[in-house]
Design goal:
- The protein has 147 residues and is mainly α.
- It is 51% helix and 7% strand.
- It is built from 3 helices and 3 strands; from the N terminus they run αβββαα.
- It has helices at 5-55, 93-103, 125-137, and strands at 60-62, 79-81, 87-90.
- A 3-stranded antiparallel beta sheet has the order 1-3-2, with no helix packed on it.
- A hairpin with a 5-residue loop joins β2 and β3.
């Protein structure tokens, strides 16, 4: 039995290391799938919220220190005064999305474009690559990046 002991130890060690490597692979794969699912859910929620805004035609909110009129929205009734004397400003879906992103503490997102109306929405290098890929294939673009 002693003659088999080193082989048993080596075999057991290989089995344990192999199991560890396989479990680490599964953990990484499942983590990536979970992240994609979370991002898709966030995106769908934003699309639904924007659709709600759009379906209502015009959504006005009170003008406050934190809610100023959108300088990029050209509309004859962008700013109005209610019957009660409150100053209101029109919030379009894009402006609403930007406001939501500023409130978000758990996810960083913003509107971007290859041809933006608002200069701050200009796509960076990574976003340009993703948007061009999407334009070409119509498929989602995922890439894990580290900051």
């Amino acid at each position: 039995m002693r003659q088999y002991f080193p082989g048993i130890i080596i075999g057991w060690t290989v089995l344990i290391i192999g199991t560890l490597i396989f479990n680490l692979y599964l953990f990484r794969k499942n983590s990536e799938t979970l992240e994609k699912t979370k991002l898709k859910t966030l995106f769908q929620l934003l699309v639904t919220t924007r659709q709600w805004n759009s379906d209502h035609g015009k959504v006005y909110v009170p003008v406050t220190e934190t809610m100023r009129p959108n300088p990029y929205l050209i509309h004859s009734r962008r700013d109005i005064v209610s019957n009660f004397g409150d100053s209101l400003t029109l919030v379009n879906p894009a402006f609403m999305t930007r406001q939501l992103s500023e409130l978000s503490e758990t996810a960083a997102f913003h509107i971007t474009s290859l041809n933006p109306i608002r200069p701050a929405n200009k796509a960076d290098e990574w976003e340009t690559k993703a948007l061009q890929s999407f334009k070409k294939t119509g498929d989602e673009y995922f890439e894990k990046v580290t900051s």
